[in-house]
Specification:
Elements (H helix, E strand, L loop, with lengths): L3 E9 L5 E4 L1 H11 L5 E6 L5 E6 L5 H12 L16 H9 L3 E7 L2 E2 L6 E6 L6 E9 L1
Length: 139
């Protein structure tokens, strides 16, 4: 018998670029919907200007990621996509580099991440203050 559960998180990311750690929200979701079960946790961001990444947080890697994205995707007028704040076209390229989905294994109801890994929402779009992330467990 298989199990499927899903939930949508609504997050306020504000008007600054951000990397938001979702790991504890994932753990809470699994505790409620998949206690003791094995399977897969999928996260999906239904936005054209945000992505999901697994990286270390709290030691500067989140700021390093945003700095690297500034080098790769400068917020200037080079982009064909021109509505919104200056350089907003780069935000639409972001999901090609930081995909809008991530899937991680779940064993005994716990997400299986490495010691320093966290699941994070990456949002460079200053025009969109609120984001949704869909969590889905399949076991």
């Amino acid at each position: 018998m298989s199990t499927f559960a899903t939930r949508v998180l609504t997050l306020t990311t504000g008007t600054n670029e951000s990397v938001t750690d979702l790991t504890s929200a994932c753990a809470d979701f699994l505790t409620e919907t998949a206690p003791g079960l094995d399977g897969l946790l999928n996260l999906f961001v239904p936005h054209a200007t945000a992505g999901l990444a697994i990286l270390e947080t709290g030691a500067g890697s989140d700021r390093d990621l945003l700095a690297a994205l500034h080098l790769l995707l400068p917020a200037d007028d080079r982009w064909q996509h021109r509505h919104g704040t200056p350089g907003h076209g780069r935000d639409h390229v972001l999901p090609a580099l930081v995909p809008p989905h991530v899937t991680v294994p779940v064993v005994a109801g716990r997400v299986q991440l490495g010691t320093w890994q966290s699941i994070c929402l990456v949002d460079t779009n200053k025009d969109n203050l609120e984001r949704q992330v869909r969590l889905s467990f399949l076991g």
